[in-house]
Write a structure and sequence with these properties.
The protein is an alpha+beta fold. The protein is built from 16 helices and 29 strands. Strand 20 and strand 21 form a beta hairpin.
C-alpha cells in the first residue's frame, strides 16, 4: 500500500490543523497492531475520527474500523492522559514524514506520528519525554522507550516551502548522481522528482537521467521554475485533492500533476476525504486477510474435529461389520474350529508347550491335513489365529465355540453403542461448523464492504433525549448541562410540565403537552424516562423518586448569596412526586416524523413498535450491548451502532431477559 509522501503530509497537516484546532479529544482505539484511531469532538461539527497508521497514513475517516473488545495498553493510556484535552496545533515537522499533534489538558502533551519506515506513534509529556510509544525501538542515535527524551529523526532533504534558489541549486553541486535521484532523495520522492522534471520540460528538454555536472544553466533555471510552479500551489493552498486511476495504477494526490494528465480523476473537497476513500477500502482488504486467516483457523478446528469424528464413526461401523462377520464365520465352521481346539487342548494335557503345538500344526498344514489348513499362528498365551474364508479370526482354546463367537458379537455391540454417541457428536460439530461459517461470512461481509459513516440531519428533538408517550405526546430531556439549560430556556412552554429525578445528576425533562391533558399514565412514563436518564442508572438502582412542577416554578435566579452552575435550576413552591419510578428503558425503531431510533419507557415502545429491546442497569459496556441491540432491531438497515450508543443511558446495561421471556411465553 502506498505510504504518504512529504507533500501529502504537508497538505493533510494543514487541513487537520484548521479542522481540529480547539477540538476536544475523546476516546482512542487500536483496531490493529499498527493503527490507532483518535476521536475528537469539534464544536458545531460533532464527531471526527482521526486514523493514524504507522509508516503509512494519517487522515480523518468516515469508515469505522472494528475495535477489539479489550482495548490494548496504548489507547487506554491515551484515554487516561489526554481524553478531555483540547487540540492546540497539528503540524508537520520540518517537511518530514513526522506529524506533531499538540494538546492541552492539565498540561501540554504531544502525540508524534512517524510515517517513515515502519513508523510509530508516541505520546510525549510537556518536557518532550516519552510517556509511552506504540512500538519500542532503539538505534545508535535514537532510543524510543518510556522515560527517554524524544529525539526527532535526523533532518534530510529540503523544505520546498521555504527553500531559496541558492539552496535549491546547492543540491546539485558536488553530487555525482543524476537529476531525478538528487531531487528524490532530498525529501521530494520519485513522484514529485519526476513531476518537477516534467514541468521543466515544458520550458526546455531535460532527460531525468542527466548527470548533475552536465546540467546547463538553462536546464537548471527550468528545473527551478518547475519546482517553484509545483510548490507555489501548496504555498497558496491551491490544492485539488483527487484520486487518479489508470488500467494498472491508482494514486491519491493533493495537486494536479502533469504525470497524471491522461488518468481518470475523481476530485474531492478536501485531501482528507480523498485519502479516506483511497486508503480505507485498501486497509479493510488487509484487515480482511488477517481476519479471514483467524476465522479460517476457527473453521479449520471444527472441520478437523468433524473429520476425526467421521473417521471414528467409520471405524465403529467397520468394527461392527467385521465382528459380526467373524462371529458368523465361527458358527459356519463350527466343526473344523472345534477340531482345532481339541487338538490344542489335548496337546496341552500332554504338557506340550504352545511353541511345540504351533510347530506341529504348521507341519500338519504343510503335509496337507485338511483341518490344519486354516491354521495361521499361535501366540505365547495359546490364542490361535485362523484364516477362514479369507478372514483372520482369533480363537481362545480355553473358551467354547459359542463363547469365542460371543467375544466378536460383544465387540460389535460395544461399537454399535459407541456409534450412537459418535453420531450425536458429529451432528453437534456440524451445527457448530455451520454457525462458525455463518459468523465468518457475516464478519467478512462487514469487513469487505465497509459502511461509510454518514452524518445524519437530526430533527431538533433528536439532539436531545426524547420519546413519544403511548398516547402520542412528545417528551424531551437534556443530554448534558448545556442541553439541560436549553430544555428549560428554549423548549419549556407555559403549558408544559417539568420533571427531574430527585437525585444529583439527572436530565431536565419536559412534557410537551401542546394542549393535551396531563394524566397518570403520561406522568408514569415521563417519570420512568427522567429516572432512567439520571445517575440512578449508573448506580444500579431499580427505582427512583421523580418530582414534577409547572414551568413558572422553574427559575434560573438563585437565592441571595448562592450560585447556580450551568444546567441547574431553582424550583420554587410545591413539588409533586412520582414515587418509585422504574429505572428501565426500551429501545426500538418508531415511525415519528419518519422512522428513527427511540429510547423510552417500555409502555411507549410497546405502543409504537413490535420489535424492541428492554434494558435495565447492568454490567455490559455500551458498545457490546449496542451490538446486541443492533442485531435484534436493525431489520431494514436503518440505523448504525453509533445511533444506538447515542440513545443509551449513562452507565452499563443488560438486556432484561425476564421481560422478553415472559412476552414470548404470552405470545406462545
Amino acid at each position: 500500500m502506498k505510504t504518504m509522501s512529504n507533500v501529502d503530509i504537508y497538505t493533510i497537516s494543514d487541513e487537520l490543523n484548521k479542522l481540529l484546532s480547539g477540538a476536544r479529544v475523546d476516546k482512542s482505539f487500536q483496531p490493529t497492531k499498527d493503527i490507532v484511531v483518535m476521536r475528537f469532538h469539534v464544536p458545531g461539527t460533532g464527531r471526527i475520527d482521526l486514523v493514524m497508521q504507522c509508516g503509512s497514513r494519517i487522515h480523518t475517516s468516515q469508515y469505522p474500523l472494528e475495535n477489539p473488545t479489550n482495548p490494548p495498553t496504548f489507547p487506554m493510556l491515551l484515554r487516561k492522559r489526554i481524553k478531555g484535552a483540547h487540540v492546540e496545533s497539528i503540524k508537520q515537522h520540518n517537511f518530514d514524514r513526522v506529524v506533531e499533534i499538540k494538546v492541552k489538558k492539565d498540561k501540554y502533551y504531544t502525540i508524534i506520528v512517524e510515517l517513515f519506515d515502519k513508523g510509530n506513534i508516541i505520546l510525549l509529556d510537556d518536557e518532550n519525554n516519552i510517556i509511552l510509544p506504540l512500538k519500542r525501538k532503539h538505534w545508535s542515535s535514537r532510543d524510543i522507550s518510556s522515560k527517554r527524551e524524544y529525539v526527532f529523526p535526523e533532518e534530510r532533504g529540503i523544505n520546498p516551502i521555504t527553500v531559496t534558489p541558492e539552496e535549491f541549486k546547492a543540491l546539485f553541486k558536488n553530487n555525482e548522481s543524476d537529476v531525478v535521484r538528487t531531487l528524490a532523495i532530498n525529501g521530494l520522492g520519485s513522484l514529485y522528482a519526476e513531476e518537477i522534471i516534467a514541468r521543466a520540460n515544458k520550458i526546455t528538454d531535460i532527460d531525468k537521467n542527466t548527470l548533475n555536472n552536465e546540467i546547463t544553466e538553462e536546464q537548471f533555471n527550468a528545473l527551478y521554475e518547475g519546482f517553484k510552479n509545483l510548490f507555489d500551489s501548496l504555498k497558496n493552498e491551491s490544492i485539488k485533492p483527487q484520486i487518479v486511476k489508470s488500467d494498472s495504477k491508482e494514486d491519491v494526490v493533493p495537486l494536479d500533476l502533469v504525470k497524471y494528465d491522461s488518468y481518470e480523476k475523481t476530485h474531492y473537497d478536501t485531501f482528507n476525504e480523498a485519502c479516506d476513500e483511497f486508503y480505507s477500502k485498501k486497509v479493510n482488504t488487509g484487515i480482511k486477510d488477517v481476519k479471514e486467516a483467524a476465522w479460517n483457523k476457527k473453521v479449520g478446528k471444527f472441520e478437523k474435529r468433524l473429520r476425526l469424528q467421521q473417521e471414528t464413526l467409520d471405524n465403529f461401523e467397520k468394527t461392527i461389520a467385521e465382528s459380526q462377520h467373524k462371529g458368523e464365520v465361527i458358527y459356519s465352521n463350527y466343526t473344523t474350529i472345534d477340531n482345532m481346539i481339541n487338538v490344542v487342548n489335548s496337546a496341552r494335557d500332554k504338557d506340550y508347550s504352545f511353541k511345540e503345538i504351533g510347530k506341529t500344526l504348521k507341519d500338519a498344514k504343510k503335509n496337507g491335513i485338511k483341518d490344519a489348513q486354516i491354521y495361521e499362528s499361535i501366540d505365547k498365551l495359546g490364542v490361535l489365529t485362523l484364516d477362514i474364508e479369507d478372514t483372520k479370526i482369533n480363537i481362545d482354546p480355553k473358551l467354547t465355540i459359542p463363547e469365542n463367537a460371543e467375544v466378536y458379537y460383544e465387540k460389535a455391540k460395544k461399537a454399535k453403542r459407541k456409534t450412537k454417541g459418535a453420531l450425536i457428536a458429529i451432528e453437534n460439530t456440524k451445527r457448530q461448523l455451520e454457525d462458525i461459517k455463518a459468523k465468518k461470512d457475516i464478519a467478512m461481509e462487514n469487513i469487505s464492504v465497509p459502511k461509510k459513516r454518514v452524518k445524519k440531519n437530526l430533527k431538533w428533538f433528536e439532539k436531545l433525549r426524547w420519546f413519544v408517550s403511548s398516547q402520542g405526546i412528545l417528551v424531551i430531556g437534556g443530554r448534558d448541562a448545556n442541553s439541560n439549560e436549553g430544555v428549560v430556556k428554549k423548549y419549556l412552554e407555559p403549558n408544559d410540565i417539568y420533571l427531574h429525578a430527585d437525585i444529583h445528576g439527572a436530565t431536565s425533562t419536559a412534557i410537551k403537552l401542546n394542549g393535551s391533558e396531563l394524566n397518570d399514565q403520561l406522568l408514569k412514563e415521563s417519570g420512568e424516562f427522567a429516572a432512567s436518564f439520571s445517575s440512578a442508572w449508573s448506580k444500579g438502582f431499580t427505582s427512583q423518586d421523580v418530582f414534577w412542577v409547572h414551568p413558572e416554578q422553574v427559575s434560573k435566579t438563585p437565592e441571595a448569596g448562592e450560585f447556580l452552575p450551568k444546567g441547574s435550576f431553582v424550583i420554587r413552591g410545591h413539588r409533586n412526586y412520582i414515587r418509585g419510578a422504574r429505572v428501565k428503558l426500551a429501545i426500538g425503531i418508531v415511525d415519528y416524523e419518519g422512522k428513527r431510533i427511540m429510547a423510552g419507557p417500555v409502555e411507549s415502545l410497546e405502543a409504537h413498535c413490535e420489535n424492541f429491546v428492554v434494558l435495565k442497569p447492568g454490567f455490559t459496556k455500551k458498545e457490546a450491548i449496542a451490538k446486541k441491540i443492533l442485531n435484534k432491531i436493525n431489520e431494514d438497515d436503518l440505523i448504525s451502532l453509533d445511533d444506538i450508543i447515542r440513545v443509551l443511558p449513562s452507565g452499563k446495561c443488560d438486556i432484561d431477559e425476564e421481560y422478553h421471556q415472559r412476552k414470548k411465553y404470552e405470545k406462545g
